[in-house]
Amino acid sequence: MLNISTNKLTGKVTFAEFKSLDMTIPASESRKRVKILLWIFLVLLLFMFLPWTQTIRSKGMVNALRQDQRPQTIQTMIAGRIEGWYVAEGDYVQRGDTLMLISEIKDDYFDPQLLERTMKQVEAKTLSASSYGERVKAQEAQMEALRANAILRREQAENRLRMTELRVISDSIRFEQAKVNFEVGQDQLERARRLYEEGLRSLTDFETRQLRFQEVQANLIAAENTLLSSQNERIAASIELNAVDNDYRDRLARTQADMFSAMSSQFDAEASATKLENQFSNYSVRSGMRYILAPQDGYIARALQVGIGETVKEGMEILSIMPANATLAVEMYVDPIDLPLVRHGNKVRFIFDGWPAIVFSGWPQISNGTFGGIVVAIDKFTGPNNKYRVVVAQDPEEVPWPDGLQIGSAADGIALLQDVPLWYEIWRQLNGFPADYYTQDERRNMKVNK
């Protein structure tokens, strides 16, 4: 049986009657099958060590990368009535083109000459402010004249006061002289009376002395009267000097009051003119808002308001526009468990609807019909679907995206992670483990740091 003995039973004994024993004898076909199975096992074993790229699959939608290039609606800035349309759906428009015309429905703006009349009010208020300004200048000139006049009048009053003071001094000297003359005359009259009584002088001489004495007495009274008059003039001059100061202050106060009143009126007129200018500017801007203009180059997608004569409210949406030459990107949504695996700069492959593709998710190098992208933005919070939004832009190092790709097209995204052996990926999938978070370079750096 083991071919050890030299006595061969082969050919002498047949085992055809023993079916089970006959099946255990190897045949040439069986050996071929074993060899094939061994080679298949060896190939599968080698296949298990092939590199496999871990991926995250997610659905997305094509959108514009920049927010100013995404589809937008055009609203009316003012309420009005539709008077005419200048575009139709599907038309290409440039920035600043007139889309439609609306008319005013508020009675405050019905006047067709509103701007002209408002400008006339502005000019009138401006002239009023200018006239008040000239009045202020006149009051200032009047105050300067009052100051110069007050200086001269004060000098005149001071001179008059000085003259009266000198006159008082002079009259007082004369009064003292008159008193001395009076005393001398009184002594002379007494001596003349004694000589007359003694008979040494005649009556005529005595009477002549009496007459002279009366003249001296009259001179004394006149000198005293003159002195008192001079003193009164000095007091009047002092009062006049104070009156000059008081009159100057009174006139200056009245002039300043008139000037401040004119300044107040000037400021009120300037404020009113500024308010009217602001109102004129608002009217000018509002008149331009009657023409709805295109905010940027693009295509008219849909008219949300139709007809002629319809009334639109302030801020109502009337048109939607699709910007032209938008830089495309894909918004894809990933589960929170996969978010830590997605980073800025990660590579992503896309399958766009309408473009056939042959995809091997583990071997993106041999896939055909996919387009490359790179992660540029990741939201920090979940959306309404409890997933995180990831924005992927076109990869400049890859084949450009199709020219016919439009905003709103669906896209199937495949985020490429790190490369692992195939047997590891099968083991991970069977156990339900997430993809590896750290790349090979990061693991190597962590080991070096340790």
TrEMBL record:
Gene3D superfamilies per UniProt: 2.40.50.100
Keyword field contains Isomerase: no
Regions crossing the membrane: 36-53
Keyword NAD in annotation: no
Lineage: Bacteria, Pseudomonadati, Bacteroidota, Cytophagia, Cytophagales
MF GO annotations: efflux transmembrane transporter activity
Coiled-coil intervals: 129-167
Species assigned in the record: Anditalea andensis
Protein name per the record: Biotin attachment protein
Cellular component per GO, a single term: cell envelope
Cell compartment(s), UniProt: Cell envelope
Keywords: Coiled coil, Membrane, Transmembrane, Transmembrane helix
